[in-house]
Predict the 3D structure of the following.
Amino acid sequence: MAGCLRGFFFAFLWAILLAGQGLPQAHAYEIEDQPGYLDPALELPVPGLVPAPEFDDSRSTSGDRLRRFDRVLEKLGIPEEAAPGFYDFPAPGSVSFDEVAAHFPTIDPDGALRKYLGIHSSGVSLFRDFFSSGISSSLLEFFLPFRQARAKTPREPDSSPLIDRLRKIGMQVKQGLYAHPLSGLRVVIDPGHMGSEEWDHRTGKFVSVGGKTVSEGDIARSTALLLAGELEDLGAEVILTRLKNGPVARTPFESFDPTPFLNQYFYNSLDSWMRNHLALPEDRYLASAMSAPEVEKAFSPSQRTQYFISGEDLEARARIIDESLADLVIDIHYDASKSNELQSGDRSIEAFVPGGVRSGETGSRVTRSHHLKHLLEVRRWRESVDIASAMVNSMAETLKLPLLTRPEFLTSVKVKDGVYARNLYLNRRTLRSLMVYLECLHYDHVREFPQLTLKDRVGTYRGETFAYPRRIDAVVAGAKEGILRYFRNLE
């Protein structure tokens, strides 16, 4: 009866909140702490909230921490998170301790994931809570035995069917004898954001100055269509997550069910804002958690919009990637800082690959399993880095722009010039393919913006024509050449 009442209450609350105002605009390189770019699997900060002092996690036993957390979820009417599936993980003995240890700085730079891992010479274990020598075996989620140093394996460390396919395509490209050298390559191209006027204003992904406007979603779509045509001419099979401007999600915003993303918001809170409440004395933690500003935020109108933008719509793209069985995923984005102002400083090009999970981003069991797969699939990750590097270097040449070289950028960690590991939704959800998340150029730059407002070229893709700025030709030429360059160098 109590559960039914809670369900009725939250349904009633959602109905009231639907009448609220739209989402405030936001910009700046997918910054997670601004509305419009939040990933519902990450911490959602509340403006003006002064966080409680950090506490020592060792003061709470694993069982006590989870018991309290489950009690808060129960009180909120949130079901316990289901156990993750460990599909297509590396086979036992296919990866070594040394390979995994060398991979930590880019996948887990803060040690956030390692808190849940039991790592020793024989293998790695993933637990439901912070690992300690006395943790109960009932909290074990997954165990993978390592390949021992003395053992020899004729197979790749991981992803061998994928690597075998890529090598075959590499031989075709190197020989230079094929009319369609990329034959056999399956690519998913995801044009970032949505591009329609309605969703540009909901997400803030546009720049409008002097009566002229550039929509990131629109130029990303044009880039994707042009690149798809070029790759298909080379023999690749290309799947686009969207051909037109608008959401990828099929369910309309007005009727979509935000429940899965609302639940995910709370699952991830275990390692972010919820942790301080769980550390309070027994007679205070529950009331403190229930009255937290983040709880009110979870049910706010703006957050419902966010669940659609960075939950429902991104998950729809992820499902297309999953179903495609792609070898390569290319996510196309452009950079901007403000919607009504140009800048003359930033012009760099960069790409993001999976990894870079930061402190506070590991609360969800499913999210941990995704990061663990990226950690263990060393070869697949390295190939993502190599093709990302080839693409951004080639684009830098065709666009005559520099690569980003900062040691860290926002939440990302540098792997090499122009390539960063970052915990973005599609990066961590792409679990079987090479993944390249491109930031092509800064469309708010004083030299770029005027060029991108001129739709002075006409392209055709699958029988439909579209106008686009000729500046995008250099983006596409660089990306295409970078892919071919990667295959020429693949060993």
About this structure: Residues 301-324 form the longest helix (24 residues). The longest strand covers residues 434-442. The mean pLDDT is 87. The chain is about 40% helix and 15% strand.
